[in-house]
Every structure is written in structure tokens, then in C-alpha cells.
């Protein structure tokens, strides 16, 4: 059997139409991807916030904090720019009282006068020997000064002679000061007088106003108000006439051996115009008062002995109390004046001792790097043994003149021509209570010698050697 396959039909002829095109591949027929979304718009500014958004608790709190911060910043800036700046205080000049030659007193005369007029049976040989030994070790010379009331025969301690001594010391220094500065007395607006053991009525300030023509002062108002462009007169003195001790208590006899007649006047100013001719500018003051401790409070007291004789008693704790007060004062002043290197060395020893328990000696800062001159209250020989010769010379020549001793010491440095422009002077004073005060001055100019200086006539004789024990010539 034969199978016959039919022939295949021929392929269709190609299209002859000109506009017909071939279809693209299927993957090309998909739609294009959508474009990327636009970036989010920036956050709206504070000024475009709606009222509803400002009322939310969080936003309200943030606004309040921002407002408070702006207010504090403005207040602090205003306070800093408008705060009252401390006015500079200038030491225009100072003067020390030099008593007349008739008041010169040897140590032997001191012993003779107090022994002759002490209470009968009260002095005795023991008290006389004790006072002699004190004078031999006091560091005082043979030309210190006693008031006339204690040099007369018999001695005459009374209110009238005490006022005579006070007037001599006060006006002897104030008159010299006004003559040196050429300042009319009526220009002085404040008068301050410090004298611990003599408080007459009328007062010292009233006495100066009455006799020197100074304008009267309302002290309470002066303490409560700030006085621009003002001169202040400071007078420092002590009175011996009513405070010489004529009993036998040894703790009270010490003052007879040390205290002498003297006084000083100081003119201060806060006028900017005085800077051109003032001597010094006040840089720092530090005050320490240890009166809260009974041992400090009672180390120097004015009291009566068993016979009713009034005197100033010095306790055996005086030297240690003075040392503690001085240490506190120096610790406070040190960071204000010492170079950073000295402060770091001191701090390092404290850390080694307190933190690491090392047994090392505390570092003593070298204050000679901070000051060129030292004026320390010439209280007694024991206080001055380790100090500069100018301090010993003041005790030797003038004795302990109480608060005015510092100004005799400064006058000594000036008479020696030691004060140069820019030099720093450290004054340290001690007082009952117990107090220790410091003042730091800087010389505005080189200080020249002047004829009104109490040392000027004999400055070439100093310094002199002062032995620790100087035998007393018996008379």
C-alpha cells in the first residue's frame, strides 16, 4: 500500500506595506519605573509654627527654658559690665613722731623710775631683778623715749599728763604730715585713730578736729556709705602714762620693758589724681581674728593684780598664739601674692603628706619672691630674731610703739633709700584678741629721702649689732 503525502503550502509572500514595523521583544513592552520620591521638605521655622503647636507642653517648656537662659545671660553680662569696681587706695605720705631729746631714756633709768615709785613692798628685789633681766634681753637701746610724766620725780600719771602725751604724739605726727603733703586740713573727710589703752572723752578724733581744724565726721555714716574722692587721715599711737605698771606681777612687768612713746600719721586717698605724687598703692589686706578661742582671747588682757594695780598681763601662750594667727594669715595671703611655682611646691608637699602619708617636712614658701620689704610689728625680741635688720633697728631705737611700729620700720627703709618703683612691702601687725593683720603695698615711684624722716639725722649709724644679751649698766 502506498501512502501519498500532500504537498505543503508555500509560505506567504512578504508584506509589501511600507508603514508596518516589527513588534519589540516582550520585555521591552513593560512600563518604565516610577521616578524617585522628592526629598522631604525642611522643618518649619519657629516663626512658622502654628498656634496649636506652641501650646504643647514640651514646646512650652523648651521656650521657657530658652527665655530663662537668655535672661540669665543678659543679667550676668549687665552685672559684670556695670558692677562697681573697687576704687584704688593710695598712700599719699606718712609721718612718724620723734619726741624731743628731753624724753630720751636709758634702760637703767627705766629700772630706777619703776623701782622708786612702785607700791611699797610690791616691787621688791625679785621684781627689780626680773625687770632688769627683761631689759637686757629686750633688744632695746639706750635712746628710746618715755613720756615726761614717767620721767619726773615723783612720777605723775594722771588724766592731764596722759592727754599731754597723747597730744604730743598725735599732733607731732599730724602736723609733720600736713606740712609734707601741703594738704589743707579742711580737705580731709575721714579721721581714724587707733589707740588701744587710752580712750579719753572727748575722743581722739574730736581732739584732732578741734585742734587741727579738720571737718567733723559722722562715723556711722562713713562706715555705711562709700565716699568717692576722699582723703582719710589715720593716726596710730599708744599711751604710756596711765598704763605704766607699778606692781610686782611678772606677767605685767614685761610691758614696762618693751613699750615706749611714739606715734604715726598716715594720709590715704582714693582720688585718681593723687596717683601722680602718692608713694604707695594698697594691693591686698588680710585680717585674722582668733577671738573665738579662749586661749587666744585671754593671752593679752588688761586687768588688776592682787594689790589692785592695773596692768597688761601677757600669758605664756603668747608666742604660740601669735604663731598660729600668723600661720592663718600667711595661708590666706599666700595664694594672692606667691608665684605659681611656690604654690605648686607647697601643694605637692601637702598631697604627699595627707594622701600618701609620707613623713616629710612641709614646704615653707619663699616670700622673698613676692616681697622686697617686710615690716612686722616690733612687739619684742623673740618675734624679730629671724627677721630683717630694719625691724630689729626699730625696736632698738624706738622700742615697741604699738601699731605705729610698722611705720617707723617703713621710714627706716625709706631713709636707707631702699624703696624703688614697683617694690612690694608687706606689713604684718599683731593685736590682742588675738588679731593678725596684713597689708600689701606697692611703690608707685622711687621714694626719696626727706628731712622729716625720724631716722634721717642718724641713719648712717645704722644698722648696729644688737646682742641677744646686753648687760645693763647699774646706776
TrEMBL record:
**InterPro entries, per database record:** 3-ktacl-CoA_syn, ACP_syn_III_C, FAE1_typ3_polyketide_synth, Thiolase-like
- EC number(s) stated in the UniProt entry for this protein: 2.3.1.199
Q: Can you tell me where the transmembrane regions are?
A: 61-82
Ordered alphabetically, the record's keywords are:
Acyltransferase, Membrane, Transferase, Transmembrane, Transmembrane helix
Q: Which GO terms describe its cellular component?
A: membrane
Domain named Beta-ketoacyl-[acyl-carrier-protein] synthase III C-terminal is located at 393-442
Do the record's keywords include Membrane?
Answer: yes
Biased amino acid composition, Pro residues: 1-16, 23-44
Q: What class of enzyme is it?
A: transferase
Q: Which residues form the signal peptide?
A: none
Please list where the region (Disordered) is annotated: 1-44
The family line of this record is:
Belongs to the thiolase-like superfamily. Chalcone/stilbene synthases family.
The name under which this protein is listed is very-long-chain 3-oxoacyl-CoA synthase
What is the native source organism of this protein? Ananas comosus (Pineapple)
Amino acid at each position: 500500500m502506498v501512502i501519498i503525502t500532500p504537498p505543503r503550502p508555500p509560505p506567504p509572500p512578504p508584506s509589501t506595506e511600507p508603514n508596518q514595523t516589527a513588534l519589540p521583544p516582550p520585555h521591552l513592552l513593560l512600563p518604565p519605573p516610577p521616578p524617585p520620591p522628592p526629598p522631604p521638605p525642611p522643618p518649619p521655622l519657629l516663626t512658622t509654627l502654628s498656634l496649636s503647636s506652641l501650646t504643647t507642653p514640651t514646646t512650652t517648656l523648651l521656650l521657657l527654658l530658652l527665655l530663662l537662659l537668655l535672661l540669665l545671660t543678659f543679667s550676668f553680662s549687665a552685672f559684670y559690665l556695670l558692677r562697681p569696681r573697687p576704687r584704688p587706695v593710695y598712700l599719699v605720705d606718712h609721718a612718724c613722731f620723734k619726741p624731743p631729746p628731753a624724753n630720751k631714756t636709758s634702760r637703767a633709768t627705766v629700772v630706777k623710775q619703776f623701782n622708786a615709785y612702785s607700791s611699797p613692798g610690791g616691787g621688791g628685789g625679785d621684781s627689780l631683778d626680773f625687770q632688769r633681766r627683761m631689759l637686757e634681753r629686750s633688744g632695746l637701746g639706750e635712746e628710746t623715749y618715755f613720756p615726761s610724766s614717767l620721767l619726773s620725780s615723783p612720777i605723775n600719771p594722771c588724766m592731764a599728763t596722759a592727754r599731754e602725751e597723747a597730744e604730743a604724739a598725735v599732733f607731732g605726727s599730724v602736723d609733720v604730715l600736713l606740712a609734707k603733703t601741703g594738704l589743707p586740713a579742711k580737705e580731709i573727710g575721714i579721721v581714724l585713730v587707733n589707740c588701744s589703752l587710752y580712750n579719753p572723752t572727748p575722743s581722739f578724733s574730736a581732739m584732732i578736729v578741734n585742734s587741727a581744724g579738720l571737718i567733723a565726721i559722722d562715723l556711722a555714716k562713713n562706715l555705711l556709705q562709700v565716699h568717692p574722692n576722699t582723703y582719710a587721715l589715720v593716726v596710730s599711737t599708744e599711751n604710756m602714762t596711765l598704763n605704766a605698771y607699778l606692781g610686782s606681777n611678772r606677767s605685767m612687768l614685761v610691758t614696762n620693758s618693751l613699750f615706749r612713746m611714739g606715734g604715726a600719721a598716715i594720709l590715704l586717698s582714693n582720688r585718681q589724681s593723687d596717683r601722680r605724687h602718692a608713694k604707695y598703692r594698697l594691693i591686698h589686706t588680710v585680717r585674722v581674728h582668733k577671738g573665738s578661742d579662749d586661749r587666744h582671747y585671754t593671752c593679752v588682757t588688761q586687768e588688776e593684780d592682787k594689790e589692785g594695780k592695773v596692768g597688761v598681763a601677757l600669758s605664756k601662750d603668747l608666742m604660740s598664739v601669735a604663731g598660729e594667727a600668723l600661720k592663718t594669715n600667711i595661708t590666706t595671703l599666700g595664694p594672692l601674692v606667691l608665684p605659681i611655682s611656690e604654690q605648686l611646691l607647697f601643694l605637692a608637699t601637702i598631697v604627699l603628706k595627707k594622701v600618701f602619708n609620707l613623713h616629710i617636712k612641709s614646704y615653707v614658701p619663699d616670700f622673698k619672691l613676692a616681697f622686697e620689704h617686710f615690716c612686722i610689728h616690733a612687739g619684742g625680741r623673740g618675734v624679730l630674731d629671724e627677721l630683717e635688720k630694719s625691724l630689729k633697728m626699730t625696736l632698738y631705737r624706738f622700742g615697741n610703739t604699738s601699731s605705729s611700729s610698722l611705720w617707723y620700720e617703713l621710714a627706716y627703709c625709706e631713709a636707707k633709700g631702699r624703696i624703688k618703683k614697683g617694690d612690694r612691702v608687706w606689713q604684718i601687725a599683731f593685736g590682742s584678741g588675738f588679731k593678725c593683720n596684713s597689708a600689701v603695698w606697692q611703690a608707685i615711684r622711687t621714694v626719696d629721702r626727706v628731712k622729716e624722716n625720724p631716722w634721717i639725722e642718724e641713719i648712717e649709724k645704722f644698722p648696729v649689732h644688737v646682742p641677744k644679751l646686753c648687760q645693763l649698766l647699774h646706776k
